[in-house]
Write a structure and sequence with these properties.
The protein has about 280 residues and is an alpha/beta fold. It has a single domain, classed as TIM Barrel (Alpha-Beta Barrel). It has 12 helices and 8 strands. The relative contact order is 0.16. Helix 9 (about 190-200) links the parallel strand 6 (about 170-175) and strand 7 (about 205-210). Helix 2 runs parallel beside helix 4 and helix 6 (about 110-115) packs parallel to helix 7.
């Protein structure tokens, strides 16, 4: 049901998705952040399993990984948190980003089955390339997960066509060459890249890496993306809130309320931007 809901939402309206690291800043608050995302209007969430060497991620997500690992969030514990988020947000597709070592360590079949049982809709493993992805795709299909493939600004058309044919969930376009992180500057090239890429795909197009502003969300969705993912910007908000309250004598409930309020304030304008594009379609 989760995968079919993902497909329907991507087909029916453009979406914005927050990216959260499971266990950041704590397992309990990780669940609360997911619930807050839905309360703010997000209709799907991307979730990362914390990993010590996240090669596709920049400093903000790396710090989020370290916070989660520092409080003991293992792969097994991340699966438990995933299940808790599914129970709290049963009508929300949960798209996973997990590095290959964590999947290999468990075995493709076992990992995909546990992820699907935990409520995941799709799986992206960014460091498994197209030429090595057949066993992972098979395991995803067996478990009922969408198999997401990654492309970048330099992916040539012929390879893009083969990646599109291999994917069963959506295509994740890295908006900027390099790692995740908030970026400014001229956005025209990104908008043109999204439009050119969307025209070539049979799968829905997701765009991530560097998105942080409502105007960026509006532009990538207007250009043809069906999903815009925001990660580093929100990870910075989570980290800054956690750090600012750790040094005070605030109670646990006040620290929680401060974090969720700061997160909501950052996410709501992005969801509003996606809703504005939805009304145009």
């Amino acid at each position: 049901m989760s995968r079919s809901l993902l497909r329907r939402l991507l087909r029916d309206a453009p979406q914005v998705s927050p990216f959260l690291v499971l266990g950041d800043p704590t397992p309990e608050l990780s669940v609360e952040l997911a619930k807050t995302s839905v309360f703010c209007g997000a209709r799907m969430i991307e979730l990362g399993f914390p990993y010590g060497d996240p090669v596709a991620d920049g400093p903000a997500i790396q710090r989020a990984d370290m916070r989660a690992l520092g409080n003991g969030t293992s792969t097994s514990q991340a699966m438990v948190i995933l299940g808790r988020i599914r129970d709290a947000c049963p009508k929300t597709p949960l798209n996973l980003l997990v590095y290959a070592n964590l999947v290999h360590a468990r075995g493709f079949d076992r990992f995909c089955k546990e992820a699907a049982d935990g409520g995941a809709s799709s799986l992206l493993v960014p460091d498994v390339c197209l030429e090595e992805s057949a066993p992972l795709k098979k395991a995803c299909q067996k478990a009922g997960l969408g198999h997401v493939q990654l492309i970048g600004p330099l992916t040539p058309p012929e390879r893009l066509k083969r990646i599109d044919a291999a994917a069963t969930g959506f295509i994740y376009l890295v908006a900027h060459q390099g790692v995740t992180g908030v970026r400014g500057g001229n956005f025209d090239d990104v908008e043109a890249l999204v439009a050119a890429t969307a025209r070539q795909l049979r799968n829905p197009l997701c765009v991530g890496f560097g998105l942080s502003k409502p105007e960026q969300i509006r532009r990538v969705l207007a250009a043809g993306a069906r999903l815009a993912v925001v990660g580093s910007h929100l990870a910075d908000v989570i980290g800054e809130s956690a750090e600012s309250t750790e040094s005070t004598e605030s109670t646990e409930s006040r620290r929680r309320d401060h974090l969720l309020a700061a997160y909501s304030q950052a996410l709501e304008p992005l969801v509003t931007a996606a809703s504005q594009e939805e009304r145009k379609t």
